[in-house]
Amino acid sequence: MADTKIDWHACAQALKIDGRAFIGGVRMPAAGGQTYECFSPIDNRKLADVASCQEIDVNLAVACARTAFNDRRWAGLSPRERKQTMIRFADLLIANKEELALLETLDMGKPITASLNVDVNSAANTLRWFGEAIDKVYDEIAPTADNTLAMITREPIGVVGAIVPWNYPILMACWKIAPALASGNSVVLKPSEKSPLTALKLGDLAIEAGIPAGVLNIVPGFGEQAGTPLAMHMDVDCIAFTGSTGVGKKIQIMAGQSNLKRAWCELGGKSPNIVFADCKDLNKAATASAGSIFYNQGESCNAPSRLLVERSIKDEFVKKILAELKNYQPGDPLDANTSMGALVDCGQMQNVLKYIASGKAQGAALLAGGEQMRTETGGFYVSPTVFDNVTNDMTIAAEEIFGPVLSIIAFDTEEEAIKVANDTPYGLAAAVWTQDLSRAHLVAKRLRAGTVHINSYDEDDITVPFGGYKQSGNGRDKSLHALEKYTELKTTWIKLN
Predict the structure, then answer these.
(1) Which of 22, 31, 225, 389 is 20 to 30 Å from 449 at the Cα level?
(2) pTM of the model
(3) Is the pLDDT of residue 383 over 60?
(4) Residue 279 a catalytic site member
């Protein structure tokens, strides 16, 4: 839990926020002086004027990154030296943990407990893990004839453009920059315009850790003005994106239209959570199912928003789900006891409410929630919402809502459950609850998803890759596999005399 002795409201009042961009190792305004107002979804208070970077700013950031890469001020260091700097970077996140957590909560609306104990800790762990890993990754020697030596090596790809979403701002940023930096690349990071504040702070901490100026650059701004120029830039070698499937498709097109840069996109999801009648512990399944959809206000790409329950236990299981809702009532995000906070902004709240209205209009049974809450605060809160009698063709079952909305779908047979689970354009995550080991393995094999949980949901570790199938994209974050995205594979063929 967050420290209940800390007066987070007082800390928020005293906080001084720097909204300037971070380019070439220093804070600076946008070249044209453009800014936009950043508001908190907690109560709609203004937090800061943030630099609204344009193409000229992106060009400068890329030029700084390219210069830093070409003169090898970072890429030329030994893996051990980069490791030591990355570990210092991680340590600085922990040393500045309370400020980072407060920025995250004010900017995005999530509970301070989650920001403090999950997001910042996980971001620091990501930096530390990839730093520790990079001097333990070996190249290869090919099994060629005696008169040749063929070396297979991985080299940094060059300048990496990273575009990250608003739901886990500091963590998603570190999922991109940690393997990219550890590999020796230079990076231009564009955070979401909705939650740029912790990303900008990362620039200050990177310099303090000893990462050379120009190696990490951060350009806040809107997609059209900053994201598009980054994705289209002819001197960017790789674009790494996490966000919506629609934007991911555009980025793939821009990568092809420009210099055919590598484009790694980790996109949306509509994840099925399958509970069979032979599940050994329905209480555990209900707790995990509710916790995973309502955590982070439902603003998670892998949220199990489709709950598939075998019909013979559905009524019993639904009661258990509804009993969990008391633990996820929206509260003050700056209260250490709050477990569900505000949606990121008014537009997202209105979008979630629109989906709830469509569920009612299409005949789903609203069992709980579905309302805006805490209106007196000026913030953007929606109650945890549960629909029953949902069919897979309803809008709430087919489209990613990105809010605290759960759709319950009944099934009768294993084959039906698999068919419904896979009947989606997405394939990010899934879960199977059963005590039958054979069923668990066989169903998991047939589910088209990048991660399949068995008798759990959303359990995770930096050592395993994260990403999806189908229109959930081709990106893979975390684990040693992430290093493959940010490196070029080279063969050096040596003829021996």
Answers:
(1) 389
(2) 0.96
(3) yes
(4) no
